[in-house]
Amino acid sequence: MTAVIEGARSLLSSYVETLFVSSLRRNIVYGDIHLTIHDVNPSTKPQVLHICSKAHPENEKSPQPSTTVVIRNKQDFWLRLCQNVDIGFAEAYMSHEVECEDLVQLFKIYIRNWDQLQGLSSLMQLPVRIWTQLLRKINTENHALANASFHYDTSNAMFQAFLSDDMCYSCPIWSSSAPEEPLEAAQRRKVHAIISRAQIQASHHILDIGGGWGFLAMEAVRLTGCRVTAITLSEEQKQLAEKQIKARGYDDRIRFQLCDYRKTPRPVGGWFDRIVSVEMIEAVGKEFLEEFFGVLSDLLHPEEGRVVIQGITFAENLHAQPKYLDNFLDKYIFPGGYLPSVSELVSCVTTGSARTLEVNSIDNIGPHYTKALRLWREKFIANWDSIKASHVQKYGQRSEEELEAFRRRWIVGVFPLTDCICVKTC
């Protein structure tokens, strides 16, 4: 039986490899990939391929993204991809089955060629239906390792190792006239823009949904003298935020609470004057978006209230059909969450609030994320030894393989994905 299974795995792997490589050769219209494929037999000479973009008028307008991909274990790699292209690649990267010179460039090529590659995943999934029982047997230690590493909790110490001192874990706004400004300045500009857009005054009581580590709340109090109730579902965030708030002498103006937005205690007077939320809406979920805006409408001053939300949205052209990309985002970036498109978000605002909320303006600050993600990635890699040490201290000893899978999960799952998402403030 074992020989039959191994034979089936080998046949399926070869089928997927042939299908995938031939499809790339035919359909890539943007970008270049230098691909090296190592055989399971180390004595076999690696296959070296150059998959370049086809002639396309659009290609003449800008330099082409280019990267090198090395497949170290081709049988396991192709079997992962035939189950799910996006998750399969991420898990293969986490398990050292594939290396990539520049993940950002690879993601750009993938997203820009999305329409041309739409049929590929469906074709690769066809044999999976036939060999389902056999495929269940390839859940190797590396497979389990990649999956389990994601579920390890994360600590304040890890975020402190790669975020700026303000602990803002969201898209900043960079100055076009000061390209060398530090990340702290760009994050402060973003926070001040939200405070300004909300038109916060000293007499106002603000609700900050998903208050993070408290920087927005503290800046709002410092600049305006308002009161802030911030809610979060993270005990660690709450502890560090309260420590920082007390150190700055704002504990009489800011209250952090551990609760779901649907259970937000109603303030004295019955409502909040302003509601702000920075990159929390991604965690709401598709089925709860309308309810979310219904809750906001119920908590907001009915005549003079204003809401400012910064959120990550999915590009409209991908939102209509990204079944496989949704799986990747859900498993590795926003577990249990959902990235709406802008049009869907606007519709949910109107319907969910029973037309009591109206979108006044929308700004796209998505391009500002690229530089921030690059800086976070560089600091994460540079400070990996301290991140690893704090992780082991908090959660106990892990093997080097487990720790490396955890590191790679962040590198492949969080930092490089910029071309398929947008950040809107409305």
TrEMBL record:
InterPro entries: CFA/CMAS, SAM-dependent_MTases_sf. SUPFAM superfamilies: S-adenosyl-L-methionine-dependent methyltransferases (SSF53335). CDD domains: AdoMet_MTases. PANTHER family: CYCLOPROPANE-FATTY-ACYL-PHOSPHOLIPID SYNTHASE, FATTY ACID C-METHYL TRANSFERASE. This is Cyclopropane-fatty-acyl-phospholipid synthase. It comes from Aspergillus nanangensis. The lineage of its organism: Eukaryota, Fungi, Dikarya, Ascomycota, Pezizomycotina.
